[in-house]
Amino acid sequence: MNALLGSLLVLATFVTVCNAQCFVIPHENIPGNLPNECKDLDGVTHPMNSKWKTKSCQECSCDQHGISCCNALPFGGRGLKRPLLLNVAIPADYDTTKCEKIFNEKTCSYKVVERNDPEKTCPVSGWIM
């Protein structure tokens, strides 16, 4: 019996951790009115069955239930999802006098380049996850 309860506790913990990566914004419940679009937290409307990426690097979709958003960035390039709202590894240990970090909103990632020659990347020894 104790083994069963322990197993259920572990399972419940994993389900909670996994679900923390996504959230749902349900449609406003108006009786007799079926929604044909979704309104996000910024007030932007999206057509039914559409998908988009937010500025905080979340992939969202609009369906008959509302808006569903999940974190989009892989952790360490291994395909694992990260449970933070802003899922960006931030460069921390690099030559800040010679180099600068640049954020790419399309890929939701930073790159570190030389200030005088942005075509050249700089080595980064540490990242803040």
Automatic annotation (TrEMBL):
One of its GO terms (cellular component) is extracellular region. It comes from the Eukaryota. Keywords: Disulfide bond, Secreted, Signal. Gene3D superfamilies: 2.20.25.590, Complement Module, domain 1. It is found in: Secreted. It holds the Pfam family PSP94. The keyword Repeat does not apply. Belongs to the beta-microseminoprotein family. This is Beta-microseminoprotein.
